[in-house]
Amino acid sequence: MNLDSQLRSAIQQAVNALFSQQVEQLQIQPTNKEFEGSHTLVCFPIAKISKKGPEETARLIGEHLVANSGVVSRFNVVKGFLNLVIADKVWAEVFRSIFADKNFGTLASNGKEVMVEYSSPNTNKPLHLGHLRNNFLGYSVAEIYKALGYTVHKVQIINDRGIHICKSMAAWKLFGNGETPQSSGLKGDKLVGKYYVEFDKNYKAQIKELIEKGASEAEAEKKAPIMMLAVEMLLKWEAKDAETVQLWKTMNGWVYEGFESTYKRMGVDFEKLYYESNTYLLGKEEVMRGVESGVFFKKEDGSVWVDLAADGLDQKVLLRADGTSVYMTQDIGTAILRFRDFPKIEGQVYTVGNEQEYHFKVLFLILKKLGYAWAEKCHHLSYGMVDLPTGKMKSREGTVVDADDLMQEMVDEAEKQTRELGKIEDATDAQIKELSEMIGLGALKFFLLKVDPKKRMLFDPSESIQLQGHTGPFIQYTHARIRAIIRKANEMNITPSDADLGLVNVLEPSEREGIGMINNYIHKLNEAAREYSPALIANFAFDLAKEYNQFYQSIPIFPESDTVKLKFRIAFSHVVANVLKKSMLLLGIHVPEKM
Predict the structure, then answer these.
(1) So what's the pLDDT on residue 321?
(2) What whole-number distance in Å separates Cα of residue 523 and Cα of residue 505?
(3) Which residues are bridge partners to 319 per DSSP?
(4) Does the pLDDT value for residue 12 go beyond 90?
(5) What band does 398 get if pLDDT is binned at 50, 70 and 90?
(6) Which of 125, 383, 429, 577 could staple 193 via S-S, CB 3.0–4.6 A?
(7) Residues 6 or more apart from 208 whose CB is under 8 A from it?
(8) What is the DSSP letter of 107?
(9) How far is CA 560 from the centre of its chain?
(10) Which residues pair with 298 in a beta bridge?
(11) Helices then strands, each counted (H, E), the chain
């Protein structure tokens, strides 16, 4: 029986003995840090049974538990809250079961499936800082679900068609002079992004010129020659014009090669790729089916709309007057296709920025109106924008923080600091570079993931890579420190066993606190999955590392003469290291053996 079950059983027995009744639902929560204890029983509901005040009820239950349960060693009462201190012997037994469980922190398959979509870039520009937060969030949520026993399908929709793609194509056709990644020395995604910026520069110049000649701003935006070329290319693409399709394939191919190398360095992967160019046609079919069934309606110009006024929203266009589709069209098709491909999935998670919250409300509502009951299983993992000390990013103006450049800068800074600290003089250059990659990318990932996804955040590269503070390198260093302790213990032939741990009766406060945190790990995993929040795991890992460092600084390990205590502390260190490693891997972060 685990600790929570033991405690609940003991409390039920106490309530029954004291008040001759059972409580249907016990309210037990973690104790506030300002009070002693690990578990708090809310006694207000029980006071209705006891016919006494909440404080008196709490005191009576606390006294009974201390005298009879063997689980609780002492207690304190704050108003109607009973804060319980678990007996050291119980904590030691909890730890012994954790130590004996070689798969602690990873649950067996539960037979359920879930799909997580992330990244989903446009093929007109390279990945940037915002994409980093997106990829790290989606990947981490997928890994958290995997740890809980789900079969997880990691997917992305590649936005490989539409007017934004044709803008890069138009600019390349006008100004490219046959330039390729090979001839330019640029990664393919960066080359295509260069022409997206080129389009915007020329488009603005042409609008200005037309306005100066007397056109209105709206007219100038439509009549600018470069925009007219992009619109013409989109219509030709949808009509399957051979030359246009070939240019589209060529430029997208350049981008895919660039993306692949970026994803590899990020450490993210995908089971299946969906392409908008394949799914938008299914979306169009569904839209026309919706028109026939009366779910959607056509306007006089031929455009197709859905009216969501009755649902508190507004009207939304689904097909333009010229028959071309919009984002919503392809998202309808993609969602349907995914549930056809993976009919057993319990849900579909879309990792997309919070500026698209309205879009997903509309999408899920449309799918429901089309008769797809699984629309209820769709969830938008909405996240806030990432700001920099220098301000907001704008991709069409070429002022974005490029993902490749930022990752390289983080790794370079990690290498610089590693060499300056001089703690690994015996390491080869290759080993230092491997460690620097681990630290630099770990710092980046942890900083982007430690903040609640819903919140807008400020990314500070210099703060993120510090060895001290709320950072990834702090946790990585703690793990490396523990691994050094384990290596020394192995050299001294100190190998703890279950039998050794069963002899422990008294714990230090930091040991007790650490075991309580580790015992809470699966609960934290479930909470992170429920909230779609890797921040809960990131902050758990930080708190555990911080607690271990307090233990390390205040309690002797190798100078300890009591063999039982010595072996317990080695075992405790071993388990902390394993849980830190598992937690960080859920964030896509590797931890070093030496640092």
Answers:
(1) 92
(2) 26
(3) 304, 325
(4) yes
(5) very low
(6) 125
(7) none
(8) P
(9) 41
(10) 304
(11) 23, 14
Pairing of strands 315-319, 304-307: antiparallel
Is the confidence at residue 392, as pLDDT, over 60?
Answer: no
Q: Give me the residue label for tokens 């681990």.
A: 438
Helix (H, G, I), strand (E, B) or coil at 115: strand
> Are 11 and 26 contacting, i.e. CB atoms less than 8 angstroms apart?
yes
Q: What sign does the dihedral 410-412-418-420 (CA atoms) show?
A: negative
> Taking Cα atoms as reference points, which of 158, 153, 154, 165 lies closest to residue 120?
158
Ramachandran angles phi, psi of 298, nearest 5°:
-100, 140
What is the Cβ-side half-sphere exposure of residue 3, based on CA atoms within 13 angstroms?
28
Distance CA 315, CA 308 (A): 6
pLDDT confidence tier of residue 390, bands split at 50, 70 and 90: low
Token readout for 119 is: 């990244």
What SS3 class is residue 298? strand
Provide the phi-psi class of 159: left if phi over 0, else alpha when psi is between -120 and 50, else beta.
Answer: beta
3-state secondary structure 33-74: CCCCCCEEEECHHHHHHHCCCHHHHHHHHHHHHHHHCCCEEE
CB–CB of 254/188 below 8 Å? yes
> Which residue type does 558 have?
F
Amino acid at 365: L
Q: Which of 41, 49, 27 is nearest to 76 (CA)?
A: 41
Alpha-carbon distance of 566 to 487, in angstroms, equals 15
Q: What is the rounded average pLDDT for all residues in the chain?
A: 94
Tell me the pLDDT tens digit for each residue of 267-320.
Answer: 999 999 999 999 989 999 999 999 999 999 999 999 999 999 999 999 999 999
pLDDT score at 38 = 94
**What tens digit of pLDDT does each residue of 451-484 get?**
999 999 999 888 999 999 999 999 999 999 999 9
Whether 507 has a pLDDT exceeding 90, the answer reads yes
Q: The whole model's pTM is what?
A: 0.92
Q: Is the pLDDT of residue 396 over 50?
A: no
* Contact assessment for residue 152 and residue 145, using Cβ atoms and an 8 Å cutoff: yes
3-state secondary structure 191-255: HHHHHHHHHHHHHHHHHHHHHHCCCCHHHHHHHCHHHHHHHHHHHHHHCCCHHHHHHHHHHHHHH
Give the phi and the psi of residue 29 in degrees, each rounded to 5: -140, 165
70 pLDDT higher than 90? yes
Residue 227 identity: M
Please state, in angstroms and rounded to a whole number, the distance separating the CA atoms of residues 468 and 477.
9
**545 burial type by CB count under 10 A (0-12 exposed, 13-18 middle, 19+ buried):** buried
| pLDDT above 90 for 323 | no
In 370-428, alpha helices (H):
403-421
Sheet with 151-158, strands from edge to edge, namely 272-275, 151-158, 113-117, 345-353, 378-383
Contact predicate 498/96, CB 8 Å: yes
C-alpha pair distances (Å), 125 with each of 85, 166, 255, 259: 56, 12, 8, 10
C-alpha–C-alpha distance, residues 180 and 165, integer Å: 17
Q: What are phi and psi of 75, to 5 degrees?
A: -150, 165
Single-letter amino acid code for the residue at 98: I
